[in-house]
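Ticket reopened. Same input as before:
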Amino acid sequence: MTQPSWWQRFSVRGVFWRQLLRFAILNVPPWIEPIVMASWSLFFLMWGSARRAVTRNLGVIKPGSFAIVNFFRCYRLFWNYAWTIADNVRFKEARTIPDWEFTGWKYFQEMQERDGGAILLTAHMGSYDLGAHLFAETSSRRIVMVRAPEADPETRAFEQDRAAEGLRIEFNTRSTDLAIDLLDVIREGNIVAIQGDRVTGEIGFLPATVFGRPTRVPAGPFALALAARVPIYPVFVVRLGRRRYRLVTARPIELVRSRDRDDDFRRAVEQWVEELEHVIRDCWSQWFTFEPYWPELAA
Amino acid sequence: MVYVRAVLAGACRVTMNVIVNRSAARWLPSRHRFALPQLVAFARLRRGNPQDADGPDHLILSIDRDQSAAESYAVAVWVFVTVAAYLAAILPIPLPLAIIVAIPLASIVIHIPIVVGGPTLRIILGDNDHVKIVSVGTMSLLTGWSFYVARGHSWARFVGWFFFAVLACNAIASLILWLLRAEVDEEENQCAR
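Engineering reply: fixed in the latest deploy. New output:
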């Protein structure tokens, strides 16, 4: 394996920015935080590829919108992202938890109280670890979360070193083994949480139409639900304001096995996309997708 | 894979102060840092806050003195505008241009006590109180600067006077809260019960 160049730590996904964020959390008085956040969100607007991708994605979510308006919307998204990752680090370093509101509480309760396991399908919204913490606080079940590894090896090591106490992280790239592990987890009556809004790396996918344009969503959660015969609960963590989040649980997606597997998947994906579109339309400034989401935008 | 059971185990080793399904708890004075917002929150709490019919299905409110967004943003804007005004007043360029230059400059200047003071104090004091000292130190520097500006003849002296007016209001609020401390405690306990 080649050693990364020293300057790569300063690239946008490099470890330097994680270290700087941790430094800020440990040293910035809370009443100065908004100034620091506003400044650094502005600084990160220089991240051209992400800015352009977000602006293009917003162009699809809000058809007919002006580029200049989407530029300011892009700033709002960066601002939300900055607060979200800061809240995440603050929880890890100081155990500070934000306020939580729940909508769809009955579905959330149903997911926790049902006899078998379940799949929790979420999107790149809000804070991953904070959401995990909340589930753990309110659930008597083990929740296993599947995530893509950090692209930068140093950043990955940094995050692993600073994971919450006792937190076990496995970035399993052997998809077959992972699928079997997850199936076992569900069969033991636990919950598997997966981000199902975009395909990262070499993973299986299903075709979908999001905001009227063709794209792909991960096939894993749907295949797992069909194999384990458990429902999929769409859950979204939405940032409402400073140290304030809403956990939205939508109607579960029931995959019914029929003779036509493709049709089973198609119906499930349609329901997932409907929920996803609904949340993204309302909370476009919370959807942290820094690459062109639709293949035609990337072309 | 992340085993969240382990997150729970780690988190539960610390005391987490939360209040569940009481929207009135948003106005607990202990969710605010400075005396003036604490007093305002206490007044709102006493006035009563009927449960919001359109509110969330379930609510968990964290009890932390830096939890109030309104307070945090208000103080941040106040500090930023104050620093930007002082900088604009000393820049040797026409005022409209000075204001434009002062805005990014103020952001950099506000970072200086954190970048310099934070790590230094952390080395000396360890992890416990250094943010508090950075906080007090930053506010003291701003107070000293405001004192200097308020005594001068530039237009920024009005900003300095306003700064001291806010400090005075906060001091009065602090005194009132001290006099009402038993009632504040009772009201908070009643809400948390």
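The first helix of chain B runs from residue 4 to 11. The CA atoms of residues 37 and 48 of chain B lie 17 Å apart. Please confirm and we'll close it.
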